[in-house]
Amino acid sequence: MYAQMVETGLKQVQDAADMTPEERAFQARIDADVKVEPKDWMPEAYRRTLIRQIQQHAHSEIVGMLPEGNWITRAPSLQRKAILMAKVQDEAGHGLYLYCAAETLGVSRDQMIGDLHAGKVKYSSIFNYPTLTWADIGTVGWLVDGAAIMNQIPLCRCSFGPYARAMIRVCKEESFHQRQGFDIMMTLCRGTPEQKAMAQDALNRWWWPSLMMFGPPDAASVHSAQSARWKIKLLSNDELRQRFVDQTVPQAEYLGLAIPDDKLAWNDGRGHYDFGEIDWQEFHDVLKGHGPCNRDRMRTRVKAWEDGAWVREAAIAYAEKQAAREPAAA
Amino acid sequence: MRFDYLLRLADNGLVLAQRLGEWVGRAPVLEEDIASTNVGLDLLGQARLWLAYACEIETGDASPVRTEDRLAYFRDAGEFRNLLLVEQPNGNYADTIARQYLFDQWHVLLLAALTASCDARIAAIAAKAVKEARYHVERSADWVIRLGDGTAESHARMQDAMDALWMYTGEMFAVDATERALVDTGIAADAQALQAPWIEAVRAVFAEATLAVPRDDWMQGAHARGGKQGRHTEHLSRLLAEMQILPRSYPDAIW
Amino acid sequence: MSAEWPLWEVFIRSQHGLAHKHVGSLHAPDAEMAVRNARDVYTRRNEGISIWVARSSDIHASSPGDRAALFEPSNDKVYRHPTFFPMPEEVKHI
Description:
The structure holds 3 protein chains of 3 kinds. Chain A is built from 12 helices and 2 strands; from the N terminus they run H-H-H-H-H-H-H-H-H-E-E-H-H-H. Chain A is mainly alpha-helical. Chain A has a two-stranded antiparallel ribbon. Chain A starts with 20 loop residues before the first helix and ends in a 5-residue tail after the last helix. Chain B has a single domain (2-249), classed as Ferritin, core subunit, four-helix bundle (Ferritin, Up-down Bundle). Chain B has helices at 2-21, 30-59, 68-73, 84-87, 93-114, 120-148, 152-165, 177-184, 195-208, 234-249. In chain B, helix 1 runs antiparallel to helix 2 (30-59), helix 5 packs antiparallel against helix 6 (120-148) and helix 5 packs across helix 7 (152-165). Chain B is globular, with a radius of gyration of 18 Å. By secondary structure, chain C is of the alpha+beta class. Chain C has one domain (2-80): Ubiquitin-like (UB roll) (Roll), CATH 3.10.20. Chain C contains 1 helix and 3 strands; from the N terminus they run E-E-H-E. Chain C has one helix at residues 31-42; strands spanning 7-13, 21-27, 50-55. Chain C has a 3-stranded antiparallel beta sheet with strand order 2-1-3, covered by helices on one side. The longest helix of chain C has 12 residues, at 31-42. The termini of chain C are far apart. The interface between A and B is large, with 45 and 50 residues.
């Protein structure tokens, strides 16, 4: 999901015969589940792939603060407001852990932010959709965090140490996020007819984009194989997507909400839910920048960054003055 | 009267937390986004404690009919009791930090005084809140100093911010009849007595920040007070319109 | 002048801990703010007793892999914990 447009740079998965001795030794460590750490030798393609993937994950957390932060000032109870503020604050923290993990690979946070603002790297496209009602906040917690958890748990076992450890910390905090969302949905679905309708409307708008979060179908994901070999990507898009559907459909049934897919049906033979065809045109359009909120999200982030430049500069200037004033403390 | 006093305490936290909530996702740097939200969460938490007690006082029994949410979402601007200072808009980061520091410096003194309240509940809430307030004032004072003594630009912005907000500080030390009665019975803190320590602390921070302390007579203006009596600036009704919209639109709904 | 804030490594000894553990990194303009930000970023769920920070550039590692650290969840802001939201028995995978 953060691996959109992440290309390993290798045209095909390398055979042992194609590898240098160092690359063979590296692959052997990965196969033995020994973690790769920042100072270890690693193929340049591995480093570049990780820098891109980890930073896209970080950017997703930060941009993700915006659709949810949108409802902090309008949260309908003080408890919901506090919980939402805490959740969004967690997301900031997750972004921070991930930026720091990426920095171990030799790229600075400012560089990564610059690349995001210049459109050179992506963030999870789900955040290019708008949160139009309070029910969207419940739905985002339930579906989007639900999908994120599915993706993040396997990443706790990824080969790169700092990324795996960041994921462990993130996963500890994430299950509160999904439950927070589901709790909102339960309250709405048990509430007034308007609240139930609000919940159904939100599900109608967020269901398909949530399925798109898992990325293109496996057949169309040409670059995943090497990532899988390097244990950066541990489960296939289709596998995760199917798991998500199987887990979520009963939850929707419990809420008394209808999933907007008339092809959705339990398939006894497969032991999974069959579901309808995703609109891949929409997926690619949003990825390219033509989703409902792409421009808004970037404008907001760029503005916050630019407006904050004088603050960051002032803090450095002060620190430098202090250092000059206290030579003994240096 | 105690009910009114508790609203004065609660509404400051409620309104200021609302303002800080507007910065989420937009702060100058990620670490600051987290730190600032933490302050907002603390203030919101304190407001909820004051409101819970206010509910009990109002109805005289332990299961109040008016809940914290009823009080937060169904009072009009004229019934809010916060200082005018906290409803001022966020502006740029200097405006936000200036507002925060001027409030925090007062708040920590107020809460410390309230730990000696004859009302055991007030004293208990204050004891918990003052720990957070000490951290808040340390943080905001630090930012005042960093921005005041940072670059020429940050210094100018911080000076402008302080100059603009100074007029609202007088209200912090104004004691009306309601408060005077409660001070006399040992329930409320004497806000007037906080002025001297406040100005002393503020002068010290301003000096380190290389900022000029605005003229005192600006503080006294009658047009810069009235929050505690429900006479607010144009900002509050707009802030409340946003904050209260959902429960007001669906008054029978549980959220 | 570069406005980039340097990177710091954060070490925390929790209330019942015997030694400081590395919990992660953050950016700050100087040590004082690094300590303050560490409290906000890394102890949101608990009050660490002691926080150490060191500039990342000052750290020399022999075993670069030795950085695993997890911190204890807190009881203070209860809704942060998954157990705060009781989920109905019938709802699975949440």
